[in-house]
Amino acid sequence: MSENSSDEIRDQLPSDLDVSAFVGPYQFPDNRRRRIPGYLYLGISACSIALWIFNDQSSGLVNDGILVFGIALAAFALFVLSSSWPMTVNERDALVRASQAVDFAVGHASAQQVWRGIRSRPTWRVFCYSAQEPPTHRGLVLVDAVDGAIIECLVELNPDTAATSA
Does pTM surpass 0.90? Predict the structure, then answer.
C-alpha cells in the first residue's frame, strides 16, 4: 500500500476551524445559546415527572427512579439556564477597557475568553505589553464580558526585559 493511497483515512479540521477559509473577524459565540439545552432539559424533566404522576401503579416500567430522574434533571436545567449569561462586551471592547485600566501605553495585546465561578460567568482575560521596544511592562486584566467591569488588574515590569538588561 502506498503512502498516498486514496483510501487512507486522515484527520482533518472541521470547516469552521479551517484558517485558510478565514473571511473576517471571529465572532465569539454568545453564552445565551445554553438556554436551548436548558429548556430541553426542563421539558424532558416535566415529561418524566408527568409520566410518574399519571402512571399505573402496577406498571413495572415506571417507578420512583423516573421521579428522581425528573427532579435531578430539573435541578440541572435550572443550573444550565442560570449560567446562560448574555455577553455584551466583545473582544475589541475588552481590549479597550484593559488598555484604560493599565498605567502604560499598550502595544501588543491579546484577549482570551474564559469562564469563572460556579455559574460560568464569561470573562475576557487580556494580556498586554507596553508600547516600547522591547516592552518594559506587561499587564493581565480580567474584564467581565457581561457588564464590562474590570475584575482584576495586575501590572508588573517585564521580566524578559529585566533579565536582558542586567
Answer: no
**Spatial CA neighbour of 46 closest among 14, 16, 73:** 73
What radius of gyration, in Å, describes the C-alpha atoms of the chain? Answer: 25
Interior angle at CA 62, CA 59 and CA 67, nearest 5: 145
| DSSP secondary structure letters along 32-91 | GGGHHHHHHHHHHHHHHHHHHHTS-TT-SS--HHHHHHHHHHHHHHHHHHHT-PPP---H
Q: Are 51 and 43 in contact (CB under 8 A)?
A: no
pLDDT in tens, 5-64: 567 777 777 776 666 666 666 666 777 888 999 999 999 999 999 999 988 777 778 888
CB 83, CB 46: distance < 8 Å: no
CA distance 136 to 131: 8
Of 159, 141, 138, 158, which is closest to residue 150 (Cα–Cα)? Answer: 141
**The three grid cell numbers given for residue 31, joined into one nine-digit string:** 453564552
Residue 73 neighbours by CB under 8 Å, 6+ apart: 41, 44, 45, 48
